[in-house]
Amino acid sequence: MKQFTGFNKDKILFFHGRTPEFRQLPLRVQWALHRTLKNEKITCLNGEYIINSFFPPLGSGAYREMVKSTIAVYQKKPYPYSAYCAVTNRCGYHCWHCSKTKRAGQELDTLTWQTILGRLQEAGVSLIGLTGGEPLYREDLEDILRVIRKDRAASILFTSGEGLTRERLTSLVAAGLDYVAVSLDHYEPLPHNQMRGHPDAFSTALQAIEACLSAGVYTAVQVMARRELLAKDIMARFVSFVAGLGVPEIRIVEPMPSGELFSGRDDVLLDDRMRLILKKWHVTANQKSSGPKVAAFAYIEDGRQYGCGAGIQHLYIDAFGHLCPCDFTPLSFGHIPSEGFDVSYGRLRAAFARPSRHCFLLSQKESIRDYYKGQLPLSYPDALQICHACPSGPVPDFYRSLGWT
Ligand code: SF4
To answer: Is the dihedral of CA 317, 325, 251, 375 positive or negative?
Structure first.
């Protein structure tokens, strides 16, 4: 595995990222898009070049599909390029920040998920995340994965590591899995085990990471940015620990007012000063040729980058078939098994037609709480009212570079 920064990174982007579709864009737009990647670091693994786990491998069929979605943004007809699917709510852990609680219903069967993944690819989605709960609880995960066509979409598995034995990993890779993101919240066992609510969570995560790395699978560690992590020495120790494991990427997510944190836990949410620390980690780590790259949501979803992807570039389907704008925003735009994919997708697209520089959920959390009647996600009529009352503002820089005003 090799990591590339600076001029070498630019060369790779020039030779592997400028697909025929990309070259259809005006030169000034190509240059602006290139500049949006100025703070990224590229990994070469098994002959593939990977910006980070938010992008399919450069030059792949899935990457070309993603470029088409960027051209659609340029044409003012944006649609989601990434979709995360919670294939189950079952899980053996009890994480303090779990965003999946307060949801209930009937888990979808294999055929329904296969049909949904097929429809997502037809709609242009080029990055499909399989999440949960713990997705490895599904014995049919390989059957679900197999419908993801390599020439259309890349796949990423989000896991605590529970159940990710070498045998299971081999079977998932044979079914087409591209990336794995393993949750790891600390460099010491006890705090991680406490935060995950399981005495073996740390050793399980490390075994899973080891299995992924030895199988040559592109692996990210996903860490929840609780406030304590942001202390300089704690974060530095965490990055150095992950570097020692040989993992190429750290994804940094932040607590969101959803699930366990839906109400009454605003004291754990980050403020702008804290997000600035994360953005600096993203930029600084990705300028160094050694060590893992950092992919911080605080940087990626900032208005100076892509802004909030909810419903416009990203969507989420929960374990019971509700189509939502993102993993954390508990608003349903339709129950796919009973209302159909097209109806639900059409409602979502209509409600999220204009991009935003700010996190939709954080800006609307009080309205969402006002509508809460004991279960999430909120129904479509409630979701629609919340969206209608939401003011539109300036667009993120990514969209500006594609001609939006
Ligand atoms: S609503 Fe917030 S958490 Fe969801 S995609 Fe937008 S920025 Fe991310």
So the answer is: negative
Q: What CATH number does the domain containing 319 carry?
A: 3.20.20.70
Q: How far is CA 167 from CA 66, 88, 163, 215, 361, in A?
A: 31, 21, 10, 10, 39
Kind plus residue range of the DSSP H or E element containing 83: strand 82-86
Pocket of ligand 1 contains residue 17 by CB under 6 Å: no
CA distance 273 to 288: 23
Q: What is the pLDDT of residues 157-189, one digit of tens each?
A: 999 999 999 999 999 999 999 999 999 999 999
Tell me how many degrees the CA angle 331-302-126 measures, rounded to the nearest 5. Answer: 65
- Atom index in ligand 1 nearest the CA of residue 297 equals 8
| Cα(288)–Cα(371) distance, integer angstroms | 46
* Domain extent for 346: 1-405
The pLDDT value given to residue 363: 96
Q: CA-based Rg of the chain, rounded to a whole angstrom?
A: 20
Look at the chain and report how many structural domains it folds into: 1
Q: How far is the CA of 357 from the centre of ligand 1 (A)?
A: 10
pTM for the predicted model, two decimal places: 0.97
Q: What are phi and psi of 131, to 5 degrees?
A: -135, -170
Relative orientation angle of helices 110-122 and 341-351, to the nearest 10 degrees: 50
Nearest CA, atom 2, ligand 1: 359
Q: In what order do the strands lie in the sheet with 293-296?
A: 293-296, 249-253, 218-224, 179-183, 154-159, 127-131, 82-86, 314-317, 323-324
> pLDDT per residue over 241-300, tens digit each?
999 999 999 999 999 999 999 997 899 999 999 999 999 999 999 999 999 999 999 999
Q: Could you tell me what percent of the chain has a pLDDT over 70?
A: 100
From the CA of 8, how far away is ligand 1's center (Å)?
32
* Confidence tier at 391 by pLDDT (50, 70, 90): confident
Strands 154-159 and 179-183, sheet pairing? parallel
Cα distance between residue 54 and residue 277, in whole Å: 21
